[in-house]
Amino acid sequence: MKNAVTFIAVAVAFTALTAFTFQGSNEYIGSKSCKACHSNKKMGGTAYKTWSKGPHAKAFKTLQTAEADKIAKEAGHSTKAAETDACLSCHVTGMLEKGAKFGKKFKKEEGVGCEACHGPASKYKTKHAKDVEGAAKLGLKSPTGKDAEALCVTCHNEKSPTYKKFDFAKRMKEIDHSK
Questions:
Q1: Does 14 fall in a domain?
Q2: Mean pLDDT in each 10-residue stretch from start to end of the chain (179 residues)?
Q3: Which domain holds residue 84?
């Protein structure tokens, strides 16, 4: 009897935890999901176009080169760069993030996309155009200043085998999509 009660208690706790953790989670849906609005001057200016021409959109592609494979091998990895967790963690949005979920339209080939800075968008995508405050409650992030810099240096740091001095102010101007 005691074992049955324990089993039921554990099952109820697991079910409640699973429902809370997984059903309520935002999913990464990919930058192409942002394109319709963020290519429209009325809605979001040229943010998508700016991103798509910038280095973050090409981040995964850089892992698919012989040079990247050589760097991965020199760093002690036995897999190609595009298959190496240590490389993917910075070259693809959300990869290796604990508990990350990815929608059907998410493509790792998009590299470091909108959601790398603004958070997984499945819940806030349709709301943020009309209600930014409400969207923030659903996971929309708009990092600025020190918060933005802290986010950037999670990848742009000395741990990267290709690290070059990171000038946050200069680099932010290069990827500015606020227009």
A1: no
A2: 37 34 73 89 79 96 98 97 96 92 96 96 90 92 94 95 94 86
A3: 26-175
Q: Do residues 171 and 117 make contact, with C-beta atoms less than 8 angstroms apart?
A: no
Domain count, the chain: 1
Nearest-10 Cα torsion for 166, 167, 169, 175 = -50
pLDDT tens digits along 66-118: 999 999 999 999 999 999 999 999 999 999 888 999 999 999 999 999 999 99
Q: CB-based contacts of 158: which residues, under 8 Å, 6+ apart? A: none
